[in-house]
């Protein structure tokens, strides 16, 4: 009986150990706006999940899980998500969302507490530039220290715009773009109009009327989908002879912009926006892109209806490429039971990716390196050469207006 007891006890101990081993997980929190800009949040989730699928959601025996954390566009909710992350012994990194203000406001908190923040969308220039110690934030997205130069260049060279009028949201994101736009248009005294979040169509019409009457011949817009749709519809309310083109930051692509502006665009309102130099419309031409799309379709069968017209498509593209870099980095460390050690090791590994990583936008050769004030692009995986201008096609897909300088091969 005693032998049977010990054998039975040993059996249950082994079963428990095996169960414990099989359920080891690492979580990636997705701090994003799943309420007001759901299209961008879902596109980012899909792209990152497709990258994890390439390794069967497993690394070193750990199961990789993406956890939705809806901050609803509220910086304080984002902070709560980050505090919860710090208390979670299974949480290894945070995947950021569309909005820059939370990461600008809490940049010190993020870095002082050792939160690995991977940014596939938020473009605020200061997010990745933390000068007071170890930098824990890594971005693969548009960078506002460069975006304004592309917007101004397109307005001048392609739209022959001589009098640009900046229309900027009154947030830290809008203000960071104002600096870049002013530098880019140094010899052109660019007028500026500021607007607040939740601006309505009535006020948008007044603002657009005033810009048209100021003799501007194009608008440089920095804002998100909700307000952007009002300004585009406001432009459509004026006679065609009075309308001027809108050159936009890519924030408009993060929500339900196209549905809200379809009639205005069909009436000829010109809206061009910046994005990285890869379009899902071209995925069949690139082996890595075909692989990414097939992985995504296996997880999300509804994508079979046409990923070419996926809302907020660059959210998918950036998150997939960033997911590939994350997988490469975490595969190069030795994971332990100490989550703080794991996070620190992952931070170092992200700065030391030596093997080329094939993504959708390009093949990444040492995408990140050690950050310093002298080398302040060290945590930026993309550069100005990776940015293109685009527009919406009639079917809702995104079409590049120029040939990409880099792409998946």
UniProtKB/TrEMBL annotation:
Segment forming the signal sequence: 1-19
Record keywords: Signal
Family, per entry: Belongs to the leucine-binding protein family.
Classification via SUPFAM superfamilies: Periplasmic binding protein-like I
Keyword Iron-sulfur found: no
Keyword match Transmembrane helix: no
The protein, known as: ABC transporter substrate-binding protein
Domain Leucine-binding protein, first and last residues per copy: 39-354
Organism from which the protein derives: Pseudoalteromonas caenipelagi
PANTHER family, sorted: LEUCINE-SPECIFIC-BINDING PROTEIN, PERIPLASMIC BINDING PROTEIN OF ABC TRANSPORTER FOR NATURAL AMINO ACIDS
């Amino acid at each position: 009986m005693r032998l049977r007891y010990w054998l039975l006890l040993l059996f249950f101990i082994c079963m428990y150990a095996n169960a414990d081993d099989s359920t080891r997980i690492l979580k990636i929190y997705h701090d994003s706006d799943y309420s007001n800009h759901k299209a961008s949040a879902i596109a980012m989730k899909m792209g990152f999940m497709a990258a994890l699928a390439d390794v069967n959601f497993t690394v070193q025996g750990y199961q990789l899980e993406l956890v939705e954390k809806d901050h609803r566009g509220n910086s304080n909710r984002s902070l709560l998500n980050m505090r919860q992350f710090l208390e979670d012994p299974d949480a290894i990194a945070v995947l950021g969302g569309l909005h820059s203000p939370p990461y600008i406001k809490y940049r010190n908190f993020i870095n002082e507490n050792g939160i690995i923040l991977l940014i596939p969308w938020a473009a605020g220039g200061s997010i990745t530039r933390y000068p007071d110690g170890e930098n824990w934030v890594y971005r693969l997205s548009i960078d506002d220290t460069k975006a304004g130069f592309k917007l101004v260049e397109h307005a001048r060279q392609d739209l022959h715009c001589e009098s640009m009028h900046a229309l900027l949201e009154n947030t830290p994101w809008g203000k960071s773009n104002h600096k870049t736009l002013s530098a880019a248009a140094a010899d052109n005294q660019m007028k500026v109009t500021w607007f607040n979040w939740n601006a309505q169509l009535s006020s948008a019409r007044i603002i657009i009327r005033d810009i048209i009457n100021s003799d501007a011949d194009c608008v440089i817009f920095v804002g998100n989908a909700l307000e952007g749709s009002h300004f585009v519809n406001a432009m459509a309310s004026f006679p065609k002879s009075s309308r001027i083109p809108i050159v936009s930051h890519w924030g408009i692509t993060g929500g339900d912009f196209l549905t809200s502006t379809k009639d205005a665009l069909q009436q000829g309102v010109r809206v061009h926006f910046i994005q990285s130099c890869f379009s899902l419309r071209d995925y069949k031409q690139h082996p890595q892109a075909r692989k990414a799309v097939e992985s995504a379709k296996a997880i999300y069968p509804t994508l079979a209806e046409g990923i070419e017209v996926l809302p907020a498509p660059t959210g998918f593209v950036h998150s997939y490429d960033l997911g590939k870099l994350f997988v490469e980095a975490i595969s190069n460390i030795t994971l332990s039971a100490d989550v703080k050690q794991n996070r620190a090791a992952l931070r170092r590994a992200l700065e030391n990716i030596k093997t080329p990583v094939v993504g959708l936008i390009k093949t990444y050769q040492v995408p990140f390196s050690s950050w310093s004030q002298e080398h302040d692009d060290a945590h930026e995986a993309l550069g100005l050469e990776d940015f293109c201008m685009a527009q919406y096609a009639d079917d809702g897909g995104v079409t590049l207006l120029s040939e990409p300088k880099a792409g998946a091969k």
